[in-house]
Here is the input.
Amino acid sequence: MKIVTDIQQMQNYADRCREEKKVIGFVPTMGYLHPGHLSLIKIIRPQCDILVVSIFVNPTQFGPGEDLNTYPRDLKRDSDLCQKEGVDVIFHPSAQEMYPKPFYTFITVEKLSEIMCGRSRPGHFRGVTTVVAKLFNIVKPHLAIFGEKDFQQLQVLKQMVNNLNYDIKILNAPIVREDDGLALSSRNKYLKSHERMDALVLYRSLQLAKDRFTQGERNAGDIKREMEKLIKGIPSAKIDYIEIVNLETFEPVDFLSNDSLVALAVYIGQTRLIDNIVLKK
Amino acid sequence: MKIVTDIQQMQNYADRCREEKKVIGFVPTMGYLHPGHLSLIKIIRPQCDILVVSIFVNPTQFGPGEDLNTYPRDLKRDSDLCQKEGVDVIFHPSAQEMYPKPFYTFITVEKLSEIMCGRSRPGHFRGVTTVVAKLFNIVKPHLAIFGEKDFQQLQVLKQMVNNLNYDIKILNAPIVREDDGLALSSRNKYLKSHERMDALVLYRSLQLAKDRFTQGERNAGDIKREMEKLIKGIPSAKIDYIEIVNLETFEPVDFLSNDSLVALAVYIGQTRLIDNIVLKK
Here is the structure.
């Protein structure tokens, strides 16, 4: 396994792979890998010849006052994990390599990035789409994989790939959870021990939504109110948003008549966590 | 020479060329080719194995009330010209092929696209950068060429290529002029016969700037005022802008201490024309 930090070197390597008709698979990450990331690697590994994992904590997707500086990093541990999973290349550029000055160019996906996490974190998705486009131009993959944990990110990126004609197949992977239901996230590390239990309320509220849906409830407002009530019972929890949207258009729905996504963001103490569930008709 | 209208077919063709280690050169155009376009083709032809010319009148770079519908088109004539110049592929997609609904993704280059033509034509450069990024992802060229006639467009695109890490070398080609100095443009076709003479005032005002610079004048305001005075002597002419900017940063200058660009846009009757000259220190 090699670790590449230089953009031109990564591009030249990708060109050589493509000349040899090798299929390049790509897993973009911000590092501090957990079993959620590893599941992405395991899914894409058999579908490609050369597997590239990028590890880059992307400054442009963090807002002012967010956790860019405290975001956990551990390259040694990440490379050991990648090595074990049969990764061929870790692409690990510096922020200066990725954002030399002057940097003026940004990609925006309208509509899809204006709601939910986009409303709570202005500029977040602009940072995500811009860095992923850059990584696509550097790694030149045939396929790339993203987790459904960040479902809105997945949809925004699929829209970008589609609209900008990136010749890349996008795979998605299901959410990986702890045994008790907590969705894996690098940010779980921030939770203090007493908050770890409280954080379960995200999963429990999604299960509540699923149960009510299974029982025949179709009123999105009623489902959201029940979720809200459950979450408000946890003193350390503060709701950022709860949304029920159409899975295709991402528009909020009043009644669940088609496949829908229930998504939420909740602060547990100082830590903002997200989770979601798809309710299939 | 082949004409390709399908995006996936163009991408597959580009992949095959790259597997065969062939260098792909690219000339993006809106068609209705004139000797200015042909000069781009002649410059890039010896530097590549496969030469692709795109012909696509891009709707997203026209503002409301602009000339999208009347913009001249003549594919038969264009293909004959391309054939003669040794072009390998014309990429000629429909607007529907390029902009299927929903289309939400746009690329913006801040600062550089906010002045001059960007101020007069809001959204114009966003349309240009977005379509060129799409075309880059479709044609997958190693090098591409743009004319200095649209100097601001050239700088905006170079910034985009740089910032988004497109692995593409950008060439620029000097302005091609009629014998009397008028810069070639597909829009010259709009000029009524009596306007054709008046249109020379753009070139003449740039020559005036150059002469004053050669004589030692360094005050940008004074040079602009002299140009303005000359242009205002032509009744059919209406100035959109006259700007003198630093060639690197594209910031307006008060004094010409480094290499500078003098650029202007002038309406001759209903027709908006642009032109520019570089003044080397």
